[in-house]
């Protein structure tokens, strides 16, 4: 039955990915989450058969049926990536449904944060704070000790709060602080340390590459939330292995 559940995870991921695309736009523009999807160019309602993840994009050749405006490649990419992440999460923890539900939820949140921060440099509290409360409850239900969650939440929040206060908001934004809280209660101790290390490693590589290519100048704004969300997803799925590998590496030195 495993292939069936893998396919089911893929389909669920495609559906969630389609929703995340819609949610990102509506959260950014302050629209209600209710109501049918519509074209951003001509405002025409999108028929249900034009809203099938990936397939509709291919059949429409990446253009709106009504006004022929191009549809961003963000839509199929987010749908495909979410589907792959959902399948991977199931593959790593098959039939552990409560843990899987928590992981699917967190992965969806990380994808949403990635899209919004990469596109508009914004991390909204409407996403991070309810997600932090939800995943905290899920982790306590899973039997994860509250003391470890408290430590990781303090580290996740405090690490970015200190940077914000020292730089007076020039280095990072307030949204990164709340994202740090989400990472803390979501990943736990000591995985929060791995997530921060991975995020800043990715950020350093991206920053150096952007400077060398001339796409960024020294002091330019960098969407830290994108690196934190990627690091969060990696640590959520492989955190224990990463920490175990690091501890063994240190002991060998």
User: Which percent range fits the helix content?
Assistant: over 70%
User: How many individual β-strands?
Assistant: 0
Overall domain count: 2
Task: Please identify the structural class as seen in this structure.
Answer: mainly alpha
Tertiary shape: globular
* Count of discrete alpha- or pi-helical segments spanning 4 or more residues: 9
| Rg for CA atoms | 19 Å
Secondary-structure element pattern, one letter each: HHHHHHHHH
β-strand percent reads under 5%
Largest sheet at a glance?
A: none
Alpha-carbon distance between the two ends = 45 Å
Low-confidence stretches: none
User: Which whole number gives the mean pLDDT?
Assistant: 90
Structure description:
By secondary structure, the protein is an all-alpha fold. It has two domains: 95 residues, no CATH class; 157 residues, no CATH class. Helix content is 72%, strand content 0%. Helix 4 crosses helix 9. The longest helix is centred in the C-terminal third of the chain and has 29 residues. It is globular and about 60 Å long. The mean pLDDT is 90.
Structural topology:
Layout: H1 2-29, H2 55-59, H3 74-92, H4 97-120, H5 125-141, H6 146-167, H7 174-187, H8 191-213, H9 224-252
Give a quick rundown of the structure.
With 253 residues, this protein is mostly helical. Helix content is 72%, strand content 0%.
């Amino acid at each position: 039955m495993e292939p069936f559940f893998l396919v089911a995870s893929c389909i669920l991921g495609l559906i969630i990915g389609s929703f995340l695309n819609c949610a990102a736009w509506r959260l950014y523009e302050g629209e209600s989450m209710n109501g049918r999807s519509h074209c951003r160019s001509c405002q025409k309602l999108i028929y249900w058969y034009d809203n099938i993840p990936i397939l509709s994009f291919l059949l429409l050749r990446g253009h709106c049926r009504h006004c022929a405006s191009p549809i961003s490649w963000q839509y199929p990419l987010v749908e495909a990536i979410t589907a792959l992440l959902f399948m991977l999460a199931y593959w790593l923890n098959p039939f552990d449904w409560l843990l899987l539900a928590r992981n699917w939820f967190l992965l969806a949140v990380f994808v949403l944060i990635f899209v919004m921060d990469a596109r508009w440099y914004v991390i909204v509290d409407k996403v991070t704070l309810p997600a932090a409360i939800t995943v905290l409850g899920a982790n306590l239900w899973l039997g994860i000790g509250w003391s470890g969650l408290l430590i990781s939440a303090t580290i996740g929040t405090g690490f970015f709060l200190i940077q914000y206060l020292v730089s007076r908001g020039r280095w990072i934004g307030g949204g990164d602080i709340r994202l740090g809280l989400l990472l803390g209660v979501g990943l736990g101790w000591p995985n929060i340390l791995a997530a921060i290390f991975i995020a800043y490693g990715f950020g350093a590589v991206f920053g150096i590459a952007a400077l060398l290519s001339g796409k960024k100048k020294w002091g330019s704004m960098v969407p830290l939330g994108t690196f934190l969300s990627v690091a969060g997803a990696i640590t959520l799925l492989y955190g224990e292995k990463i920490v175990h590998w690091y501890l063994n590496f240190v002991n060998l030195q």
